[in-house]
Amino acid sequence: MVATLGLTGYNQPAEDSDGTCILATHLHSTPRRLRIAILSIACGVMASIVQAATYKGLVVGITDGDTIKVLDSSQRQHEVRLAGIDAPEKSQAFGRRSKQSLSDLVFQKQVTIDTSKNDRYGREIGKVLLDGQDVNLEQVRRGLAWHYKAYEREQTSQDRASYAREEVSAREARRGLWSDPHAVAPWDFRRNHSAKR
To answer: Is 81 a catalytic residue?
Structure first.
């Protein structure tokens, strides 16, 4: 990833090809304390931003119905939170079924991950594809995850429409968690659970 910052008349990359912050070379006319503050902020921000990436890997772990662990070709393990969906928590109704469904779909299989950001826990947020099939969407289609509308603006308009349509279809067919007329969305479950602590 190369970012540019227009400081002191310069519009140069803020880091070189190996990711090292080189902004310092362009701040020579800035007061020392300000230079240090700018460097700290710039390097910290760049370190927290994930470059949009697509990679292939083997699914080696299933955390729950919307999080997997993937081992890439260089043997680096990635924790991937499936974008656009929110599955029931493990301690919630349908939590185990959702996790099992995701496991049946992808465990010990080669998948493609399209990711562009990390969440606050450091997990990559990504779309998981198995032989071209959108696994995230499949969880919604099976009625084992909600379309996570709080983050729908991060989806393409096509994905947003597909996920919404499949959630309505699963709800109408009473598939999976929709067989419970009082199904509790995971975000509500987490909020209620944390309020009881």
So the answer is: yes
Distance between CA atoms of residues 60 and 41, nearest Å: 35
Catalytic residue among 76, 79, 89, 197: 89
Reply yes or no on whether 191 is catalytic.
Answer: no
Class of domain 53-193: mainly beta
Query: What pTM was computed for the model?
Result: 0.74
167 in active site: no
- Ranges of each domain in the chain: 4-48, 53-193
pLDDT 10s digits, 35-93: 665 655 544 444 445 468 999 999 999 999 999 999 999 999 999 999 999 999 999 99
